[in-house]
Amino acid sequence: MTISMYQASVPRFVNILGNLSKILDKTQAHIDAKKIADATLTGDRMFPDMLPMTSQVQIACDTAKGVVARLSGVDAPAFEDNETTLAELKTRIAKTIAFIQSVPAARIDGTEDKAIVTKRGDKETHYTGMQFLLGHAVPNFYFHVATTYNILRHNGVEIGKRDYLGNP
Question: I need a surface site. Which of 38, 82, 93, 118 has the fewest CB within 10 A?
Answer without folding.
Answer: 82
